[in-house]
Design a protein that fits this description.
Length: 299
C-alpha cells in the first residue's frame, strides 16, 4: 500500500515565540561562513505562494506525488495541463528583496553556500552562484526512459502548438508551478512524449513522495559540516528533506537561526527564530552590515 507524504505539521503548544530582533542574524553573517537553507516563504513576495502557513496552498491543494504521476496517465495529463498553464505565470516571477539580499551576502563572502528547497530559480536570477537545488528545477524536463534533459521553455512551445485551443482560467497558482483547474478543464489536454525516445516526460523536480538523490543529500551534508552556522529562510521544515540538515547542524553544535513568520519544526533546535517578512528583514540585515543590495535599498 502506498503511503502519502507528510504535508502538514502541528506546532506543539510549548514552542518559544518568535522575536523581531535581527541582531543575532547580523552577528552570524558578520562572522561569515553562513550556510543558507531557503524554502517557499522567501518567494512569496515574488508572487509565488507558500505551501504552508496562512494562505498556504496546502490549505486548498494537494500536490502531485511521484507515485501518482508515474502510475497514472490521467494523473500526468492533469499535472501537465495544470503545470503548463501555471508556467505562464510562474516563469515570469522575478527575484524580490529577500533573494537580492542573499545574493549580496554571497557576493561579499559572508556565505559558505546556499541550499534551496524551491524549484523557481529565483536565487540564481538574483545573482547567487553555486546554489544547490535540493528539489530540482522547473526550468528543466527529464525523460523517465532515456534520462534526456531538455528545457522547460522548449517543452512549453511544443505544448502550446499541440494545445492551441487550451485557454482555461486558473483559480490559483501553486508553489510547484501547478495551477488549480478542474478535471473537466484538463480532459482534452494533449500530453507530449520525449522527443528523443518517446518516453514519459517529468519536470526535473522532486515530487512529494519522491526521494532526493543520495549524491545531492551528501553534498548538502558536506556543506553543513563546513559551515559555521545555518540560516533557515522561509521554510517550515515540515518535510525531512530540509529538517535533516537542521538536525545535523544541531548535533554538531552549530548556531542555527531561522527567519520565518510561523513556527517551524526546527524551532526547538534554533538559537533564535525571527518572525518577520523575509524581504524587509533581510534588507534590514544588509543595511546593518552596510552591504549594497542590487535592485533594492531599504527605506
Amino acid at each position: 500500500m502506498r503511503t502519502r507524504p507528510t504535508l502538514h505539521w502541528t506546532p506543539p503548544p510549548d514552542l518559544p515565540p518568535g522575536t523581531t530582533d535581527l541582531r543575532p542574524v547580523v552577528d552570524a553573517l558578520g562572522a561569515g561562513g553562513v550556510l543558507v537553507l531557503s524554502g517557499a516563504g522567501i518567494s512569496t513576495e515574488s508572487g509565488i505562494p507558500a505551501y504552508r502557513g496562512e494562505g498556504g496552498s496546502l490549505n486548498r491543494h494537494t500536490p502531485m506525488t511521484y507515485q501518482d504521476f508515474t502510475a497514472s496517465p490521467q494523473a500526468r495529463r492533469r499535472y501537465w495541463a495544470r503545470s503548463h498553464l501555471g508556467w505562464r505565470t510562474f516563469g515570469r516571477a522575478r527575484p524580490n528583496a529577500g533573494h537580492q539580499a542573499v545574493a549580496a551576502f554571497a557576493r561579499h563572502g559572508l556565505l559558505s553556500g546556499v541550499i534551496t528547497q524551491n524549484v523557481d530559480g529565483l536565487h540564481q536570477a538574483a545573482g547567487a552562484e553555486g546554489v544547490v537545488e535540493l528539489h530540482g528545477s522547473l526550468a528543466r524536463v527529464r525523460c523517465l526512459a532515456c534520462d534526456d534533459v531538455t528545457s522547460r521553455r522548449d517543452l512549453a512551445v511544443r505544448l502550446e502548438e499541440a494545445n492551441a485551443a487550451f485557454a482555461p482560467v486558473a483559480a490559483e497558482i501553486n508553489p510547484d508551478g501547478d495551477a488549480d483547474l478542474s478535471d473537466e478543464q484538463v480532459a482534452d489536454f494533449r500530453v507530449l512524449p520525449c522527443a528523443a525516445c518517446g518516453g514519459v516526460l517529468k519536470p526535473d523536480v522532486v515530487f512529494f513522495g519522491e526521494t532526493v538523490p543520495a549524491q545531492r543529500i551528501e553534498h548538502c551534508r558536506r556543506l553543513v559540516s563546513a559551515a559555521s552556522s545555518l540560516l533557515v529562510l522561509g521554510s517550515s521544515l515540515t518535510v525531512m528533506s530540509g529538517l535533516r540538515f537542521v538536525r545535523q547542524a544541531a548535533q554538531a553544535d552549530k548556531r542555527i537561526l531561522i527567519i520565518n513568520r510561523d513556527p517551524t519544526r526546527g524551532d526547538p533546535l534554533a538559537r533564535t527564530r525571527v518572525s518577520l517578512p523575509l524581504g524587509p528583514a533581510l534588507s534590514s540585515v544588509a543595511d546593518a552590515l552596510d552591504l549594497p543590495v542590487e535592485g533594492h535599498r531599504a527605506g
